[in-house]
Amino acid sequence: MSAAAQPPALPVTFRPTVTRIVLLTVGAVLVVVLTAIGLLLENLSPGEQASFILTGLLFFAGLALFSRPKVVADEAGVTVVNLITTRRLEWAEVLRVNLRPGDAWVHLDLADGTSLPAMGIQVGVAKARAIDDARALRVLAEHRGTGGGTA
To answer: Judging by beta carbons within 10 Å of its beta carbon (0-12, 13-18, 19+), is residue 19 exposed, middle or buried?
Structure first.
């Protein structure tokens, strides 16, 4: 590792910010539009109007779930928050940080022989940022744990 590859200050949170903004904005717009449609259509019963509003809220909840992923690194280790799971890892458990060409997001090779997707660093619409974030996480893993890796 070169002297220029210094780890970022801790704690640090990696998340796909642009994707998150788009998903939450689209979700909010859907709630507003479906609520307006439900309330403006005069032929609908109160139950039907409520179903329009509920549908908008369900869409928002689904999109909010997709905006949840993040990776939080601190002095003790890393917390990987994916769509429905959260996993806390000590630095020694992270052997390698991988973001290979064609990968949608980072994968962490773990000491137990498994691989954990870290969806908080995803290529999506911000490829350069994902590569920079993967490198920063790799440097942290190299400085704090047993790992090395490719980004």
So the answer is: middle
